[in-house]
Amino acid sequence: MLTIAELEQLLLATASGDQRAFQRFYDATSAHLYPVALRILREEGRAADCLQDAFLKIWLKATDYQAGRSPLAWAAAIVRYQAIDVLRRFPRDEPGWEEPDWEREEWGDDGEQAALYPAERRRLEDCLQHLSAEQRQAIVQAFYRSSTYEEVASHFGAALGTVKSWIRRGLLILKDCLQHESA
Fold first, then answer.
1. Local confidence band at 153 (pLDDT 50, 70, 90 cut-offs)
2. DSSP 170
3. What are the boundaries of each domain within the chain?
4. Which CATH number fits domain 1-98: 3.40.50.720, 2.40.160.20, 1.10.1740.10, 1.10.300.10?
């Protein structure tokens, strides 16, 4: 795997239209980003198609990448949003649609966290511990499991505004923690 600095250079070169840099970025990251799509879509063919669409967006949005951010986390966010878009287009009665499994462990060893470098993963896990249980669970369900705010509110039996508040405050705490940890 390339270093964060090397991936960043590849993304910046991609933003300038360098196809070879984009190919190298794809080669270095696709195996780490595929599990992000697979975790959300739960079907290999759809996940592979989603990943290709996400890489097209990465190519087109490379100019939006801000140096200093984790290139892999930035790309993982694009893959995640692409997968959520695909998932939400499924009719709920179509095979492949499943209700969220709230009983699964909160932050397992598969899926989206596999796309993070070990040091970033450790920092994120450490910062998640600064949140209240409600904030942490709401954020994990909304962002890791791709649940809507309404689904999270229904799970907790809480008002939608309360859940949005938990998530908003939790994200602010995470942002401060991650910025402090990286300094």
1. confident
2. H
3. 1-98, 103-183
4. 1.10.1740.10
Residue where the block lists tokens 């709920």: 92
- φ, ψ for residue 67, nearest 5 deg: -55, 140
**Strand, helix or coil for residue 107:** coil
HSE (side-chain half, CA atoms, 13 Å) at 42: 11
The letter for the amino acid at 99 is: E
Topology of 103-183 in CATH? Arc Repressor Mutant, subunit A (1.10.10)
94-to-46, 98, 100, 148 alpha-carbon distances in Å: 13, 9, 15, 19
- pTM for the full model? 0.57
Judge contact between 131 and 139, C-beta under 8 A. yes
Q: Which tokens hold the place of 25?
A: 């970025």
Q: What is the pLDDT of residues 26-43, one digit of tens each?
A: 999 999 999 989 888 888
Q: Report CA torsion sign: 67, 61, 11, 16.
A: negative
Q: Which residues make beta-bridge pairs with 69? A: 67
What are the φ/ψ torsions at residue 170 (nearest 5 degrees)?
A: -65, -40
In angstroms, the CA 31 to CA 115 distance is 9
Residue type, 31: A
CA-closest candidate to residue 141, choices 120, 167, 116: 167
